[in-house]
Design brief:
This protein is an alpha/beta fold and 350 residues long. The protein has eleven helices and 16 strands.
């Protein structure tokens, strides 16, 4: 796999080189010292994966990600030492198409490498995705049973990956404070970024946004976000929890696993949305939800950063509606809010 490094710090570049060299199938094909140089080099020699820093001179990692995904699309992993201090930039970069983010490995004074394992796992996961070696989202989830309690509260489910944060923010911007459904989001993002993503989305929505702890209940008018590298599930007692299975899934947390767990037990009104993302995660789960009576929506090709997951859903017949991102929020409003109960000024907050 051909890998490019974009970082202006020599010590960080050396640490990244050492991590990459641990796998004989990985090759660093070029190094760029700033985002502008990276954009040019991607034109000349496109890598399989770009390890992109955020804070750099000339052009930062957010703008470089946007330019590369527009002009020379390839897989981009944000690798930065300033994750917590620049969380908003992480989500902006992911909104432009970065797949994930991880902390930069470090070299201590003795020359020992620290933090390399997490980076290697991320590169391996991305390699599996771009190589098409994806795993099914099948998991040990409850099967439908007539003995399960009936639920009446409305439920909105959102699954997203590459480009997801911006797409999710646009959907949420259309929903009013009196939104009558509980909302659950599964975004492909490492657990260390989940709390920051909740804060970032809260600042762009009229609704409260929180991360999910094991045992939490669904809350009407609240956005709840999967917050671990295990898979989110809805249990038969209608509490939320996490499971490590399937351990072989490339997607953590898996949208398929969560969608299928909901389809197994939920009997109330529901809508499920599958947004932009690489791979097929969520497509089978969306089909299961459609068969269970949910309204199912997939983002269209034109507005998707990566038309992978929504495309898979459309091909399976899992999506009842395929819409541009600008129309999905209104479709959700129309489904959950009768016209006579909608606010007099329904325009989303800019």
């Amino acid at each position: 796999m051909k890998i490019a490094i974009v970082n202006d710090m020599l010590l960080a570049v050396e640490a990244l080189r050492r991590v990459v060299s641990q796998n004989s199938e990985y090759e660093v094909i070029w190094v760029a010292r700033d985002g502008a140089e990276a954009v040019c080099k991607c034109h000349e020699q496109r890598p399989d994966v770009v390890l992109m820093d955020l804070i750099m001179p000339v052009m930062d990692g957010v703008e470089a990600t946007r330019r590369i995904m527009t002009e020379s699309p390839c897989a981009i992993l944000i690798v930065t030492a300033t994750v917590q201090g620049n969380s908003s930039k992480v989500y902006e970069a992911m909104g432009h198409g970065a797949l994930d983010a991880v902390a930069t490995p470090t070299l201590d004074p003795s020359g020992s490498l620290e933090g390399g394992d997490a980076l290697m796992r991320k590169i391996g996961m991305i390699g599996s995705l771009i190589g098409g070696k994806t795993q099914s989202g099948a998991a040990d989830v409850p099967h439908p049973s007539t003995k399960l309690a009936m639920r009446e509260e409305p439920l909105l489910l959102i699954g997203a990956s590459t480009g997801g944060p911006q797409a999710v923010a646009e959907v949420l911007a259309h929903l009013p404070q009196n939104f009558p459904a509980a909302i659950v989001l599964v975004q492909h993002v490492d657990r260390m970024f989940a709390a920051g993503l909740a804060t970032w989305l809260h600042e762009r929505s009229r609704l409260p946004v929180q991360t999910i702890r094991p045992g939490d209940l669904l809350k009407t008018g609240t956005v709840s976000i999967a917050a671990t590298n295990d898979h989110l599930i809805l249990r038969s007692d209608f509490t939320l929890g996490y499971t490590p299975n399937p351990k072989t899934s490339n997607y953590r947390p898996s949208i398929d696993v969560f969608f299928k767990s909901v389809a197994a037990s939920w009997r109330g009104k529901g809508c499920a949305i599958l947004l932009t993302g690489m791979g097929r995660d969520g497509a089978e789960g969306l089909l299961t939800l459609r068969q269970a009576g949910f309204l199912t929506i997939a983002q269209d090709k034109r507005t998707s950063i990566v038309y992978g997951m929504p495309k898979a859903a459309a091909e399976l017949g899992a999506a009842e509606m395929v819409l541009s991102i600008s129309l999905i929020g209104q479709a959700v409003r129309d489904y959950f809010l009768p016209s006579d109960s909608q606010p007099s000024n329904p325009s989303p907050t800019p």
